[in-house]
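Input (structure):
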């Protein structure tokens, strides 16, 4: 491995002073040397550079459970309050692509990530953590959404 690749893949601590109520879903964008993470309860997407500089926050207007980088286009795929959406930044654009149990008003997205095949996996949960209404969903590049495992709290 050449020195440049070794440096890029060496773990390092990124320190940011952005308090979160419920921080989740850290995502490293090596294209821009930027760390992103969500604050579910505040509906915010935080970001900063590897050295802790250029800290910022993007308010989505709804709870944001998780984000993953889009492979071939700018922005993210995200698990929002009760939907999967595509997010682009600067300016913020949110384009819902799949509802997630919209009839379960007490549910919200929790954490999620993309697998090696590029499918977006996201879990939902009861916001009060009382009822077994949460599920794992899989969203693929063709736009197909599948409820896979559940229900659970």
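Output (sequence):
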């Amino acid at each position: 491995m050449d020195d440049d690749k070794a440096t890029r893949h060496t773990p390092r601590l990124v320190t940011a002073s952005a308090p979160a109520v419920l921080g989740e879903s850290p995502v490293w964008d090596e294209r821009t040397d930027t760390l992103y993470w969500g604050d579910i309860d505040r509906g915010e997407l935080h970001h900063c550079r590897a050295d802790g500089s250029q800290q910022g926050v993007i308010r989505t207007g709804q709870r944001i459970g998780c984000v993953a980088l889009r492979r071939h286009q700018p922005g993210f795929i995200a698990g929002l309050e009760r939907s999967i959406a595509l997010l682009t930044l600067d300016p913020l654009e949110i384009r819902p692509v799949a509802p997630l149990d919209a009839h379960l008003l007490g549910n919200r997205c929790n954490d999620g990530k993309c697998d090696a095949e590029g499918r977006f996996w996201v879990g939902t949960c009861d916001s009060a953590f009382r009822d077994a209404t949460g599920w794992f969903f899989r969203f693929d590049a063709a736009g197909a959404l599948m409820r896979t495992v559940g229900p659970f709290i």
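Notes: Residues 79 and 149 are 17 Å apart (CA to CA). The chain has one helix and twelve strands.
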